[in-house]
Write a structure and sequence with these properties.
Strand order of the largest sheet: 1-2
Shape: globular
Strand content: under 5%
Radius of gyration: 12 Å
Largest sheet: 2 strands, antiparallel
Order of helices and strands: HEHHEHH
Helix content: 55-70%
Structural class: mainly alpha
Length: 97
Amino acid sequence: MGFFDYFFGSGNTYSPDMKLLSRDDIRIIVSRARVKTLDQKEELAVEEAIDHARLDGRISMKKIDETLRHLVSNRTISINDKKGLLTQFEHHFTSQK
């Protein structure tokens, strides 16, 4: 991942379509069992950020990417954490179809 990817994202264009995501789903997706690079503090920070980013229990992959990018820029999580988390959220939403 290059310099510009760090600041501007991975170049992936994520869907702005809002999908249901419960607080329990967030806990499962963000768990350290699924994303091995997270520690407990990072896990809680991500859970909180994603929960606050939801609107009426819905969130888009685009908003998740923006939220995680913000956490990376604040050095709350690493780029590797972000990649792992995006993979988990993508998997969750594609398995719901």
